[in-house]
Structure to design on (99 residues):
């Protein structure tokens, strides 16, 4: 049986506001909602404190915090399956994400 981490550790990258905002810009891949793509990319690429800041910018732009992936799940639902995601889940819920 192979065990894998559910989140990669982010090391050494500086996340000032401009860097955090850059995660808002995603291209439509034709497979998933661009709001979901932006959320997932930020979730996978940021520490929780930076993710919380990202969500502030995301919501301020009027983006859909409950956007779904091609499997019909929101990022909150996906993150809930990851054992090290508690801080991310709290940030999503504080930003208005619902199950």
């Amino acid at each position: 049986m192979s065990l894998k981490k559910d989140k990669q550790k982010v090391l050494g990258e500086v996340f000032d506001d401009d860097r955090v905002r850059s995660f808002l810009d995603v291209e439509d891949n034709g497979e998933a909602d661009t709001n979901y793509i932006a959320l997932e990319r930020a979730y996978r690429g940021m520490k929780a404190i930076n993710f919380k800041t990202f969500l502030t910018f995301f919501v301020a732009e009027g983006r859909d915090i409950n956007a779904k992936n091609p499997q019909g799940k929101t990022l909150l639902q996906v993150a809930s399956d990851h054992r090290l995601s508690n801080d991310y889940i709290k940030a999503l819920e504080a930003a208005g994400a619902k199950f």
Notes: Confidence is low (pLDDT under 50) at residues 1-5. The chain is about 45% helix and 0% strand. Residues 35 and 75 are 10 Å apart (CA to CA). The two ends are 31 Å apart (CA to CA).
